[in-house]
Amino acid sequence: MTKTEFRYAHHPDDVKNYTTEQLRKHFLIEDLFREDTIKLVYTMYDRYLVGGILPVTGPLKLETIEELKSEHFLDRRELGIINVGGKGTVTVDGEIYELDHKEALYIGKGKKEIIFNKTGSGQPYFYINSAPAHHTYPTRKVTKNEAEIVQLGEEKYANKRTINKLIVNTVLETCQLQMGMTELHPGSIWNTLPAHTHERRMEAYFYFELEEGQAVCHFMGQPQETRHIFIKNHQAVISPEWSIHSGAGTSSYTFIWGMAGENLDYSDMDVVSPDQMK
């Protein structure tokens, strides 16, 4: 079964007036993983698509959706997948790729049949991002050992973290999609500090490995007009190009970031120091 939601883009002046309920309705994705379901959220921010796929009793095929007006899902798109659960498989036009925990797969434009399945007793959780594509690049699996690794933060600021750049242009070729995974070290709770915006790109965050009963306070909004959303494990949030995207958890956690937009320059950001935000 495929379940699709549609989200419009929002002007920052309007968002200033949103209640907590409205912020959550428009930007938070609460129920990404449902048994034997492909859950997709299509947003007008760079026409980015966020999804969760949970094959439990059998394989799930990624079909096109009404919003795409295409015969196949990837006729005009590229796709990034990161498995945040047990071992599973993704079959791309008959070729099988096995994805273990925290392994990624990039699928280029034009592939026709994408099937997700589990292997053995483990339960895969396939988190996906997709963006429009103008060119076809090869399908490629990326393990954590093949990722570009960056160490950031300091213990004294509670933001020591490891960034795993998985689907980025320094690892493989893409049109505009970029995805990676940031792992907070034990005792660290802050991500993406100093905060920043990048009006050339939108972004989406997916939080996982968050302990039961804990939460992340995700900060968004313009730097001088911030807002926050409390997020639980296996939930995602859409971040507009004008918005900061930072967070603090009640425990350590891991999150996946995905981006699309004007360029592929990971370092392109307009930094805002903590003492400048309001």
Keywords:
seven-stranded antiparallel sheet, 278 residues, 24 strands, seven-stranded mixed sheet, Jelly Rolls
Describe the structure.
With 278 residues, this protein is mainly beta. It has one domain (2-276): Jelly Rolls, CATH 2.60.120.10. It contains two helices and 24 strands. The protein has helices at 12-15, 20-27, and strands at residues 2-7, 28-29, 37-43, 49-54, 60-61, 77-83, 88-92, 95-99, 104-107, 114-118, 126-132, 140-142, 148-152, 161-167, 178-184, 190-191, 195-197, 201-208, 216-222, 225-231, 235-239, 246-249, 254-261, 270-272. The strands form five sheets. The protein has a seven-stranded mixed sheet with strand order 1-3-4-11-6-9-12, with no helix packed on it. A seven-stranded antiparallel sheet has the order 2-21-18-23-15-14-13. The radius of gyration is 18 Å and the shape is globular. The mean pLDDT is 96.
In short, what is this structure?
It catalyses: 5-dehydro-4-deoxy-D-glucuronate = 3-deoxy-D-glycero-2,5-hexodiulosonate. The protein has helices at 12-15, 20-27, and strands at 2-7, 28-29, 37-43, 49-54, 60-61, 77-83, 88-92, 95-99, 104-107, 114-118, 126-132, 140-142, 148-152, 161-167, 178-184, 190-191, 195-197, 201-208, 216-222, 225-231, 235-239, 246-249, 254-261, 270-272.
Number of strands: 24
CATH architecture: Sandwich
Under CATH, the topology is which?
Jelly Rolls
Largest sheet, order of strands side by side?
1-3-4-11-6-9-12
Task: State the share of residues found in helices, binned by percent.
Answer: under 10%
Gross morphology is globular
Family: Belongs to the KduI family.
InterPro entries: KduI, KduI/IolB_isomerase, KduI_N, RmlC-like_jellyroll, RmlC_Cupin_sf
Protein name: 4-deoxy-L-threo-5-hexosulose-uronate ketol-isomerase
Keywords: Isomerase, Metal-binding, Zinc
